Design the sequence.
């Protein structure tokens, strides 16, 4: 049953890609995908936390008593979230402002906690790194893609560059909450259509 | 830096201490499996599963409301582990398998046409579903979609088919089915289930006193799955070899094909499956539930006792049978003659039941060698008494104790025990019109009696014996004397019986049993010469044990000397004593005793588990579902039923060789194809109607 | 008083936590399939959110800010919330089983509900006073419940619709949520 490191990595990019296949982590997927930049930024922050927490949990898996494991995971995750928060505040202040409250909220993103529990707590460090990286990059790509759709339709731009020319009237709808829900819902439908299951 | 560390330490310690104290103070017991299952779930409490957190999801899994794969976060390993906790380990619990009892599918008729919805759940929200059948499958496959183990597929006939090997018994389909049709059941649940008003049952299965799933086993025979057919029959009837031979098959009277054509030869098909197993030379394995450590005494090793012992053993209880005669079998050994049920066959069947791990103590008569108090003392927590009805009624006429006079059951059992009786060349008469009387005459003719008569006080059409038996006796040259009531038995000087005097009768008004009452014709006394007289006019149970041993005063007995019980639960007026068979019902069918044995086993199981002993709600018990009894059955083409081969009468009267032969495989297949595969209201017509 | 009313209306309708602030969506989709579940969840969120809002406010004002440990806010809050939820769950289960049966089973779901953590952080970021924090916590929770219950009602109807296969389940739920959110969008001009 043991999968290779590559398989553990690749599964996060398609088979278990959040938030589509693994319907978790919806809040950031909805909230911070107004633009590609925000989406990717959020995704990378989450990837970093996921990677680090998976690594640390995997290393400590023999030490942590199973009964209080959830509390331990939360502390580990919260620590890395704080690190990310401080780093972003220092080096990418505009992004920090635009992501706002959602950076500390990575701590309650159940993808992160879920991977610690479901994977890292039972697996050695290398597969855990692969898993964290795979799921994280999958999440980043999803957020980026949703961000791209919403930015293109809602603002007529992609990464800040105008793409449809001056005559394009943007759908302001897509930039707002309703657009986020509908956009994510339709992308999910598209994924269902492409994938078999 | 120091402050931060200190702060974290303090807040961590504080939270930890408060919680660990709280968990001690606010401790509430819950099913330990919930904690085990929760241990394997992700613990992220994300709600992705649709349940309210991981512990709620774990509780749902334990209650069978969610599949082991409930967790959206944890991987397939977790699913396997959870499935492990949930009884896939045969040591700790029985495996659970999903069952779809409905096989109506696409053939079921629609009430209305509607194309707007495509799930069962939505369909039920619309007027309870579009099909005419109130209980059947809707065929939209909610269960197929929910199954995470690909164990359910939509079959070609429009109803889901379950792969029992792939099914882990998670219960997701049961939860998904809005018709409450699919149930995840353990083997014990299946053994304990009795017909309900809400079940999708064919008329034959409603009629069978043992509630055998007849359409299923016929379908299995049709598909060549003879072993499957044996397993299906064994779920309700452990004595399939015997029943396949002696059962008067009340089911066939309600066969839907029989409305338009000859009924399907259901019992012959049962015998075919049963003989297939015996002739294959190997016994099919019979699974038993894990031992419960409870002990049950079964007094009486007849069909009811064997049936109860078999079901109790399969439910995991430890069973000991006490039998008065030297061998087990009761009336089917000592009452049914060799030419109908060979002893070799019966031995093979009983051995199979005892092989489950049932102890048998023979030559132990209740009331003579032991009594109820002895069984209680030995540590049996429940006692099942099915000692049958072995006491023959007397003619109550002068001279019936002369030499050469026998009682029916006494005669049959002495014969079956191998006693040599001098019958050759003698003239014999049997008084009575029931099955025992017919068995006696057919035995007498085989023993070389010169002339055998049957004396019955009404006419042939009122004879309670099975039609086939009466016919067989006619073929074998029995002399029938109808409308004759014995008044006196006359002997010679040595006390040997010589003549029977009887009054001629004529039929009057119908009596309570619906049969016309025979009225004597004044002055019509007639005498017939004979050397042997057997009276076989009915039996009743021997309740003399009631007066031997203490504590029996509360045992209620009816005026027919049977136990006074609830007819469904078969619990007597003493809560830990149960009964079934002839001792409960008076002389009746073998298959009735087998059905009773199973119901009593169910009641005993409830009693031992500390539950209230009662019939399930909406139990169908001996009734029929109105909507499934048809006056016309369109679409049936007449096809003659397979004729059973029997020994020619000239040959069979010379020996005790079995008269009826089993169907050949070809005949059985042809016969199984006559079955309409009925369900509650739908069936497969022969031609497109 | 008027200020509090504005704050409450803004939190319930204009800045509805689910539909405008994008918080708490995982349980929003998970527990909205049936009306009963939605009502239970809504009540549990009101209960916990008010308690958590107050306790985190106290922790923040009197401990973190006094010690100058603002950067430990995330980690401290999540620990306090998780412990609080677990404590309340155990307490209810033992002491008030009737209430536990109604609400308690929803409590674990709240630990990782970002709505709870999110509102606590909003309270702190906006530098609300104690009373303001109380009002905002309560109002946000009511907004959560309102959206959840409305959504559950719609979802029960969607069941009867003929939904194309790829859109079934979560996908149609998200689109539906989008349309409801569009309705809430109309409140934007109010405050």
Sequence:
């Amino acid at each position: 049953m043991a999968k290779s490191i590559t398989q553990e990595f690749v599964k996060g990019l398609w088979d278990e890609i959040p938030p589509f296949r693994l319907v978790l982590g919806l809040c950031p997927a909805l909230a911070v995908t107004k633009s590609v930049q925000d989406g990717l930024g959020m995704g990378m922050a989450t990837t970093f936390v996921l990677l680090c927490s998976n690594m640390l949990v995997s290393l400590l898996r023999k030490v942590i008593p199973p009964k209080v494991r959830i509390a331990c995971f939360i502390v580990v995750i919260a620590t890395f979230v704080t690190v990310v928060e401080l780093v972003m505040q220092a080096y990418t202040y505009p992004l920090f402002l635009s992501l706002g409250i959602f950076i500390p909220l990575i701590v309650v993103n159940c993808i992160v906690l879920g991977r610690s529990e479901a994977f890292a707590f039972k697996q050695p460090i290398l597969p855990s790194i692969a898993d964290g990286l795979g799921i994280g990059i999958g999440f980043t790509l999803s957020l980026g893609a949703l961000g791209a759709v919403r930015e293109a339709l809602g603002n007529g731009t992609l990464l800040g560059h105008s793409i449809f020319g001056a005559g394009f009237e943007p759908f302001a709808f897509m930039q707002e909450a309703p657009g986020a829900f509908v956009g994510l819902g339709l992308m999910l439908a598209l994924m269902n259509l492409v994938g078999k299951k | 830096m120091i402050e931060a560390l200190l702060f974290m330490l303090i807040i961590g310690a504080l939270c930890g201490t408060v919680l660990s104290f709280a968990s001690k103070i606010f401790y509430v017991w819950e099913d330990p499996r919930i904690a085990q299952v929760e241990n394997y779930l992700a613990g992220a409490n994300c709600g992705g599963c649709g349940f309210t957190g991981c512990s709620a999801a774990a509780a749902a899994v334990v209650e069978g409301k969610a599949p082991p794969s409930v967790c959206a976060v944890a991987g397939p390993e977790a699913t396997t582990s959870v499935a492990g906790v949930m009884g896939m380990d045969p040591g700790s619990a029985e495996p659970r398998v999903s069952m779809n009892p409905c096989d109506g599918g696409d053939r079921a008729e629609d009430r209305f046409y509607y194309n707007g919805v495509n799930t069962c759940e939505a369909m039920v929200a619309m007027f309870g579903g579009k099909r005419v059948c109130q209980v059947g499958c809707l065929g939209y496959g909610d269960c197929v979609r929910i199954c995470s183990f690909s164990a359910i597929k939509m079959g070609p006939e429009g109803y889901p088919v379950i792969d029992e090997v792939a099914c882990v018994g998670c219960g997701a389909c049961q939860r998904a089915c809005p018709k409450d049709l699919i149930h995840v059941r353990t083997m014990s649940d299946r053994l304990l289930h009795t017909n309900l008003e809400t079940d999708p049952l064919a008329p034959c299965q409603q009629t069978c006193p043992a509630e055998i799933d007849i359409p299923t086993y016929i379908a299995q025979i049709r598909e060549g799955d003879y072993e499957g057919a044996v397993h299906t029959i064994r779920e309700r009837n452990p004595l399939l070899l015997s029943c396949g031979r002696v059962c008067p098959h009340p089911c066939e009277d309600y066969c839907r094909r029989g409305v338009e054509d000859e009924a399907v030869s259901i019992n012959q098909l049962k015998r075919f499956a049963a003989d297939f197993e015996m002739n294959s030379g190997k016994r099919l394995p019979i699974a038993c539930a894990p031992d419960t450590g409870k002990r049950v005494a079964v007094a009486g090793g007849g069909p009811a006792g064997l049936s109860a012992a078999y079901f109790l053993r399969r439910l995991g209880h430890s069973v000991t049978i006490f039998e008065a005669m030297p061998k087990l079998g009761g009336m089917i050994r000592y009452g049914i003659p060799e030419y109908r049920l060979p002893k070799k066959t019966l031995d093979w069947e009983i051995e199979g039941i005892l092989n489950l791990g049932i102890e048998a103590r023979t030559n132990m008569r209740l009331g003579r060698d032991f009594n109820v108090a002895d069984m209680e003392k030995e540590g049996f927590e429940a006692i099942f008494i099915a000692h049958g009805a072995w006491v023959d009624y007397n003619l109550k006429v002068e001279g019936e104790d002369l030499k050469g006079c026998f009682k029916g059951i006494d005669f049959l059992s002495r014969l079956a025990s191998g006693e040599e009786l001098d019958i050759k060349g003698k003239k014999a008469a049997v008084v009575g019109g029931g099955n025992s009387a017919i068995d006696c005459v057919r035995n007498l003719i085989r023993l070389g009696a010169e002339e055998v008569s049957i004396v019955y006080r009404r006419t042939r059409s009122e004879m309670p014996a099975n039609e086939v038996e009466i016919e067989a006796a006619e073929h074998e040259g029995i002399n029938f004397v109808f409308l004759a009531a014995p008044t006196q038995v006359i002997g010679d000087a040595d006390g040997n019986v010589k003549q029977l005097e009887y009054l001629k009768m004529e039929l009057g008004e119908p009596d309570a049993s619906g049969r016309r009452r025979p009225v004597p014709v004044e002055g019509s006394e007639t005498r017939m010469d004979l050397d042997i007289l057997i009276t076989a006019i009915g039996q009743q149970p021997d309740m003399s044990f009631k007066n031997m041993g203490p504590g029996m005063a509360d045992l209620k007995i009816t005026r027919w000397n049977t136990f006074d019980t609830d007819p469904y639960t078969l619990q007597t007026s003493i809560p830990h004593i149960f009964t079934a068979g002839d001792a409960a019902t008076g002389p009746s069918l073998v298959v009735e005793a087998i059905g009773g044995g199973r119901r009593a086993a169910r009641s005993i199981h409830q009693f031992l588990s500390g539950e209230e002993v009662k019939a399930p709600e909406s139990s169908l018990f001996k009734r029929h579902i109105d909507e499934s009894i048809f006056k016309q059955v369109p679409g049936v083409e007449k096809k003659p039923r397979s004729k059973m081969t029997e020994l020619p009468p000239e040959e069979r009267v010379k020996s005790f060789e079995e008269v009826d032969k089993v169907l050949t495989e070809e005949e059985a297949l042809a016969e199984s194809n006559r079955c309409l595969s009925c369900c509650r209201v739908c069936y497969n017509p022969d031609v497109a109607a | 008083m008027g200020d509090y009313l504005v704050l409450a209306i803004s939190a319930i309708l204009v800045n509805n936590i689910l539909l405008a602030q994008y918080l708490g969506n995982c349980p929003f989709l998970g527990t909205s399939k049936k009306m009963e579940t939605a009502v239970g969840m809504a009540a549990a969120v009101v209960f916990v959110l008010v308690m958590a809002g107050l306790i985190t406010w106290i922790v923040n004002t009197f401990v973190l800010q006094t010690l100058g440990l603002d950067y430990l806010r995330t980690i401290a809050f999540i620990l306090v919330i998780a412990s609080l939820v677990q404590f309340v769950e155990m307490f209810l289960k033992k002491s008030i089983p009737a209430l536990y049966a109604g609400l308690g089973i929803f409590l674990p779901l709240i630990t990782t509900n970002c709505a709870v953590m999110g509102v606590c952080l909003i309270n702190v970021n906006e530098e609300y006073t104690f009373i303001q924090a109380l009002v905002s916590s309560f109002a946000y929770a009511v907004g959560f419940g309102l959206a959840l219950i409305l959504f559950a009602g719609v979802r029960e109807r969607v069941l009867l619709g003929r939904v194309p296969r790829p859109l079934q389940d979560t996908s149609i739920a998200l689109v539906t949520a989008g349309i409801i959110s569009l309705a809430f969008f109309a409140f934007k001009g109010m405050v």
